[in-house]
Amino acid sequence: MNHVQGHAEVWEEQVNIPTYEVGQPDPNPLFLEKRVYQGSSGKVYPLPVIDTLSDRKVDKPYQAVWLENDYLRVMVLPQLGGRIQRAYDKTNGYDFVYYNEVIKPALVGLAGPWVSGGIEFNWPQHHRPSTFSPVEYTLRENPDGSCSVLLSEVDVMYGTKGMMTLTLYPGHAYLEIQGRLYNRTPLPQTFLWWANPAVAVNEYTRSIFPPDVHAVMDHGKRDVSRFPVATGVYYKHDYGAGVDISRYRNIPVPTSYMACESAYDFMGGYDEHEQAGLLHIADHHVSPGKKQWTWGCGDFGQAWDRNLTDDNGPYIELMTGVYTDNQPDFSWLKPFEEKTFTQVFMPYKQVGRVCNASKEIVLGLEIADGKADVRVYASCVRRDALIMLIVRGRKVLEQTATLSPENALTLTAAVGACAPHEVTLAVLDGQGTLLLSYTPAMPEIKPMPSPAEPLPEPEAIPTVEELYLAATHL
Q: What is the pTM of this model?
């Protein structure tokens, strides 16, 4: 059975964080209607713009909100857009998102200052216009024993309202984010939502995309590359006959890539040296966006590392988008329409390359030389869990075990001379209910998707309706 232990708590506390100061906002209104920012409109009015930074560092007080249970400790900073500043796994002392111990802004944001690290929530545009501004918040203890912090703001550019509820549950090693986006206006409005978790990287870091991701695409789907092994030129870098771009150490230049499609609900990153990582879990029908961004491990990227932190080193962003699989694609909110969604961020350990995952169970399966290595991680204590490995309808492994967030269960079984797609790994609870399973797909070489073609010039568009739709898309 699922054993819930302990409790969750939420509280406020003033913390002092070394901070590089920024200048005063420009008193003159800046319209900048024709500036392009992150592939979309760079207009900012009526937001104030800050375009000066200081190299002076001071200890600055912030009112932090803490969420904590038996397994996790999470710090939220409502003064900085409600970002998650730190997410810490107490079971192994691992920061499963990048913990930047200083606030060191660079002029990357739509309205100026932006900081790296933690998890940034980007809406209605990327990067979030209010990423360096305070949001409203309240704390809540829930009847089921969970605790939440509720964050809310009205976007001053479009009048839409964004609300986030961040929740920790007793006995569960994951953080749940419930998003609600509401159009308060009588006009249709556009929006995007990409959560932006950063993870610390080194030569052992690997991005974890689902096993069905065979191709990735650039912003606007302008370019495409095979994944995980890129060949030829991508982002103006020649990978030659093939380089594994799931590894940070192999990407020397600033690079984005987004999964072109996946039928799985997870993505993440993993440090093979620490044997620990981060997973994002969400319904792929609602949250199809799976992206990696890096400054690159070359000289340019190292310069940006120094721009954005003092001592915490390089990071990558593993971004997750709802209602779109690419940036800067936007979705619509009709007048007075509300859209809702749920995203989960969780640590995991000792599994390596994930083959399937839910917010309850994480599976790893590797088959080679007639044997299967099985790894199972659970985000809560599960007694009498049943792990089964089935080959061509015959059980070759059947073991009952207690699973927990403390350690992953590792098993090995002989599978003989079989193809991977003839093997199924399944985990059931003590009542025999299937929790999660995985069967490798049959090997196939899928055709590469074509990059998007630019819209033709207006005079080449044959009908008024197509012209209108093209303009609306732009």
A: 0.95
